[in-house]
Each structure stands twice: as C-alpha cells, then as structure tokens.
Design brief:
Bound molecules: zinc ion
Oligomer: single chain
Strand content: 25-35%
Number of domains: 1
Largest sheet: 7 strands, mixed
CATH class: Alpha Beta
Strand order of the largest sheet: 6-5-4-3-2-1-14
Structural class: alpha/beta
Organism: Winogradskyella eximia
Pfam families: Lactamase_B_2
Shape: globular
Protein name: Phosphoribosyl 1,2-cyclic phosphate phosphodiesterase
Length: 253
C-alpha cells in the first residue's frame, strides 16, 4: 500500500490567513500544511480519508485521476467541505462511494442537500453511494478495514486500520478496547496538535503516550498546528521511530 499525506495541518491549515507567526512565515515546504487527509493506493484501488476544503488542490497536486471512495472520520468542516469537488470524478466514474457514520451522513445531507436529494437535481450536481460505517469491520475495495472508535472532545470519531496501517485523526480519548485493535502495526498515524494540552485533540505528549502503548514499528504525527513548531525542530526531539508527517510525504508498507 502506498500512502500519500495530502494534508497534515489542523483546521485552519498552515500558514493561517493573515498570521505573522514564524511557523506561518516559514519558507520550508514542510511547514506548509493543507487540511488533513491521506490518499491510500493498493492494487488498482485509490481511496481518500476525508475531503476537506483543500480537496481539489490535493487531488491536482497528487495527480489523482480516479477515486474508489472517500472514507470519513467525522463531519467537521476541515474534513468534509471539499465534497463538491468530487464532480470531476463523478463525471468520469458515476456515483462516488462514501463511507461514514450515520451521524456524519445526516450532517452532510444538511450541508450538501443538493448532492443527497432524491428529487430532480440541477444539471452537473454529483451523486454518491452511501455506505454506513458502524464500529465493526467492513470491506473497502478488497481490504477488510477495522474502525477505531474514539472521542474528539464529546464527538464520536472513527480512525481506521487498513491491514498493518492505522490512521487516527482528531482523537482525544480512546477506550482500552479500541487501543487493543492497534496491536502489531507497521505504521500508525496519529494526530498531535501542539505542545500545550487541548480540549479536543491529542497534544504531542498524549500522541507519544499512545505510540508508546501501541508500539507500532513506525509512527507519523499529523493534524498539526503552527504552535507545534517548525518541522525540522520538532523532528529532532521525537523518538527514533516517530516522524512528523508533512504534505506530499509518501510511505509504502
Ligand atoms: Zn480536524
């Protein structure tokens, strides 16, 4: 499986509009972070986890010409607002499969009513195929995927395990029985917002604690805010098998 980090930033992205914070002014491309998302490719399959406001730019940047579906972690805007830009894929492929919790579909149906309407659609409006995710394994392409249930403050979120790769974002609390599902991973991706604690996201310490518990061969940190610091500085203080992800990073497992 080839994994491409399409975006590794928190909700506002980095740089933040109008900010003069040094990390926002950094000229290092590793400090420029679009909203969080990953592209997963294996055999002939291409899936995306989440489609935030940068989805169009991310699809162009990664040269994606076909997607077999979008798997949602939760309904927050930084993970969903690019949905309209499935149109080029829809025109070529037909209905685009979306995988999400029932509650996430309810939220998308409100905000993108024109996509989900069962009535007559305005010409050019895309259509989707809804696949409801519950907290039990489901099939994505030819792969059995295991949801990892967690809390983002009080909001339920799903992370996902694809074989020996797991992707968690916007997690703050994970029950022990869900952590058990993360044993024997080659790669764990987990959110690490900043150094200071945060009400709805792991800070660096909490992310490293989870990595220490789960003991994957390697771990990558994502959903990063400018407060975490410059990429090159943060990388220096991380344990040997932990890496600060950056946009366009590709790994193969
Ligand atoms: Zn988020």
């Amino acid at each position: 499986m080839k994994i491409t980090f399409l975006g590794t930033g928190t909700s506002q992205g980095i740089p933040i509009i109008g900010s003069d914070h040094p990390v926002c002014l950094s000229e290092n491309s590793k400090d420029k972070r679009l909203r969080v998302s990953v592209l997963l490719e294996w055999n002939d399959y291409t899936f995306v986890v989440d489609c935030g406001p940068d989805f169009r730019q991310q699809m162009l940047r990664a040269n994606v010409s076909k997607i077999d579906g979008i798997i949602f972690t939760h309904e927050h805007a930084d993970h969903t607002m690019g949905l309209d830009d499935i149109r080029p894929f829809f025109f070529r492929q037909g209905d685009i499969p979306l995988f999400a919790h029932q509650r996430v579909f309810k939220s998308l149906e409100k905000r993108f009513d024109y996509i989900f309407t069962t009535g007559k659609k305005y010409p050019g409006v895309p259509s989707v195929a809804k696949i409801e995710v519950k907290n039990k394994p489901f099939l994505v392409g030819d792969l059995n995927v295991i949801p990892i249930d967690g809390l983002h403050y009080k909001l339920q979120v799903f992370g996902y395990r694809f074989h020996n790769f797991a992707y968690l974002t916007d997690m703050k609390t994970i029950a022990d029985k869900e952590v058990e599902k993360l044993k024997n991973l080659d790669v764990l991706v987990v959110n690490a917002l900043r150094i200071k604690p945060h009400i709805s996201h792991f800070n660096l310490e909490e992310a490293l604690e989870l990595i220490e518990r789960v003991k994957p061969k390697r771990a990558y940190l994502t959903h990063v805010s400018h407060y975490l610091g410059f990429h090159d500085d943060v990388q220096q203080i991380l344990p040997e098998n932990v890496f600060l992800a950056y946009d366009n990073l590709q790994i193969t497992i």
